[in-house]
Amino acid sequence: MVKMFLNNIVFAITANMEGWELFQNSLLPMIQGAIKYTIPLTLVSFTVGICLALLTAIMRLSKSKILTAPARVYVSAIRGTPLLVQLFIVFFGLGSIGLTIDPFPSAVIAFSLNVGAYGSEIIRASISSIPKGQWEAAQTIGMNYGQALRRIILPQAARVSIPPLSNTFISLVKDTSLASLILVAELFRKAQEIAARTYEFMLLYVEAAILYWIVCFALSIVQDQIENRLDRYVAR
Amino acid sequence: MFLSVKGLSKSFGDLNVLKNIDIAIDEGNIITIIGPSGSGKTTLLRCLNGLEIPDQGRLVFHDGFEVEFGQTLKKKQLMELSRKSGMVFQSYNLFPHKSALQNVTEGPLFVQKRNKLEVLQLAESILKKVGLADKKDLYPHQLSGGQQQRVGIARALAIEPELMLFDEPTSALDPELVGDVLKVMKDLAKEGWTMVIVTHELRFAEEVADTIIFMDQGQIVEQGPPSQVLRNPTQERTSQFIQRVMNPS
């Protein structure tokens, strides 16, 4: 079964020169799609999402119900509904009631909200994992809540949250392919367009998968480096 | 009088941890608090700088600064209370992502916003005083327990408090490292610091303390100079405790 599957791929890619040519010709538009849309969409959404996540985490850790309640509802709503549905609500839904947002910003909104919700749980857990004594020590040298959070707690929490946040980031890279469904001309949409023209579905979708894989592999190397950097201060 | 503690009470749920505690601390006095675990001694110490908020009671400082517990406290009042004292923790609680020097400069530099050169000089002189001048660039995990605790003392001194609080500063240390920390504390005593020390080191308490307070079940059972509390206790509970600590087996 596996062997047949592999054979088919190898066949599709190499057995005929036409396939190989198509592979080469489609590479450029797909890479363009990645550079113009997939990567910017990921970076912008992740940056905005992390800010949202931090804010939400701090709200959830607060003692005031006025702050924790909206944060809880937000996280629950985003985690309880499919990303694709959220994407469609922002683009088609809002568009149909007169609030038209372009595809790219629509995608940024949906993905940022998504990262914000999942990331907030990660950040909240990593802040909670820092021993209470660190807060107390900060307090005894005169720090207020904000100072303690910024200078003592978050730098330590950052180290704890890097591996799970990297997961979120890598998931986001792949989830951006959903933006093809709201007409963002990103990597996967390019693959779909070429496949629709040439009927070479296997070749083009495998090609797209390989490109995603390369991007994610590069990201995991970056993750390792960040972790090593943050581990400098910590005994193993 | 440097600080007077009046009618301090605190409970956690149904448990009365502190029952109507009164203490008077004179300037330059060294008070050690001893007692069995669960007697409330650590809680009492933590009430003095607002790490624990008592349910009732009053703290009155020599300069007229006063905190009345049992009513809503202003943040500013609590900040001022914690600024009065430096705290040394049983488990050091050093900032692991900062070097020894950065641990010491963090308070004066980023909280008190003092001049950088001045703070660096101060920090280096304090680290020298605790015998760690050559370790200033090491991170906490690169230091032994005794060295970490001395950084902890240096960090507390650096905010230039009026009062130093020690919460069982040697309890987490290997026996051979206890001496270094106690020596630093003796030096501070000689310099005339006002200190409140929760400890199990009765010999140390006898040597440095002006007053020893023996606590049990949230109350002060007995207090007085070491010669009285340790050598001629008037209370049965005190002598039992001292016997047990001095002859553990």
Task: Provide a descriptive summary of the structure in words.
- The complex is a heterodimer of chains A (236) and B (249).
- Chain A has 236 residues and is mainly alpha-helical.
- Chain A has a single domain, classed as MetI-like fold (Orthogonal Bundle), CATH 1.10.3720.
- In chain A, 83% of the residues lie in helices and 0% in strands.
- In chain A, α8 runs antiparallel to α9.
- Chain A starts with a helix and ends in a 6-residue tail after the last helix.
- Chain B has 249 residues and is an alpha/beta fold.
- Chain B has a single domain, classed as 3-Layer(aba) Sandwich (Rossmann fold).
- Chain B contains nine helices and ten strands.
- In chain B, the strands form two sheets. In chain B, strands 6-7-8-3-9-10 form a six-stranded mixed beta sheet, with helices on both faces. Chain B has a four-stranded antiparallel beta sheet with strand order 2-1-4-5, with helices on one face.
- In chain B, α6 links the parallel β7 and β8.
- The longest helix of chain B has 17 residues.
- The model of chain B has no long low-confidence stretch (mean pLDDT 94).
- The chains are: A mainly alpha (236), B alpha/beta (249).
- Chains A and B meet through α6 and α7 of A and α2, β6, α3 and α5 of B.
- Chain B: Keywords: ATP-binding, Cell membrane, Membrane, Nucleotide-binding, Transport.
- Chain B: One of its GO terms (molecular function) is ABC-type amino acid transporter activity.
- Chain B: This is ATP-binding cassette domain-containing protein.
